[in-house]
Amino acid sequence: MTTAWLVVFLAVFLIGLTKSGFGSGVGLMIVPMAAIALGHIPSRGSEAALGLLLPLLIAGDVMAVWQYRGLLRRPPHPDPFPKGEGEETAVSVWVITRLLPGTAVGVVLGGLLLWWFHQQPPKVLVALIRAEIGFESVLLVSIHWWRQWRGLQHTLMPEPIRSHATGAFAGISSTLAHAAGPIIAMYLLPLKPDRRVYVGACAVYFFLLNTAKLPAYWAADQFAHAEIGFTVRFLPLVLAGALCGLWLNRHMSDRLFSRLVYIITFVLGWYMLADGLRMLVR
Prior knowledge:
Blueprint: H1 2-21, H2 30-38, H3 49-67, E1 72-73, E2 91-92, H4 94-97, H5 100-118, H6 123-150, H7 161-177, H8 181-188, H9 195-219, H10 228-250, H11 254-281
Parallel strand pairs: 1-2
Helix pairs in contact: 1-2, 1-3, 1-10, 3-9, 3-10, 5-7, 5-9, 6-11, 7-8
C-alpha cells in the first residue's frame, strides 16, 4: 500500500510539473499511474481516478494560468501568437476561443458516454478509446516527422473545420480519460509558438475544458470517491510540481522543448495504444 501511495504522490506532482512546464502532450501517464495505484488502495479503486484527479488538474491549471497570465492578448488578432515591437511573444485569446464551440460539443458527448459507461462494465469501450487516442498520437507525430524529414511544409486543415474537429475530439477524450493533451499539442505546435506561449495557451484552454467537465462528472457520479480533504492534502504537491515545471520551461531552448514534446507524445501514444490493445485481448 505504501508503494501505491508513492505512485499517487508522483502522479499528483506530475500534474503541476506538466501543466506549468510542458503544457500538454506529456501528461498521459498521470491517469494510468493513478488508476493502477488506487486499485491497490482499500476503499479507493481504479474507478476513482477520474473524479479524484479532476479537482487537482483544475488546481494545476489555475497555477499555470497565473504563472503565464502576462502572455495573454485579447481577440481579435489575426496572428495566434502576436509579437509587438519590443514585446515578448503573446497568446491571442483568439487561438483558444476558436476551439471552444467544438470543445463544448465534445464535452457533452463525452459526458453522455461517461454516464453510459457508469451503467455497465466499460472495459471494452475504454480499451477502444485508449487504443484510438494512442493511435491518433502516434499517427500525428509520425506524419510530422515524415514531413520534416522530407522537407515539406505543414498544410493545415482549413479553419474553422480544424478548430471545431480538434475541440470536439479533445472534449470527448478529456471527459473520458483526461487524455486530450496530444490532440492539443498537435493543434498548437504546427503554429510554432515559443515554449512559454505554448504552455500559456494550454493552461488557459485546459482550465476552461476541465471546469466545463465538472457538471458531466457530477451527473455521471464520478465524484462518489472524491473528498475535499483528499484534494486539499495534495495541493502542496501540485504547487511543488508547478514551480519545478516553470523552472524547466525557462531553462530549455524552444527547439529542445518542441522536440521533447513530440518525442514524449509519440512514446506515450505507443503506451496508450499497447495498453488499449492489451485490455481488448484479455
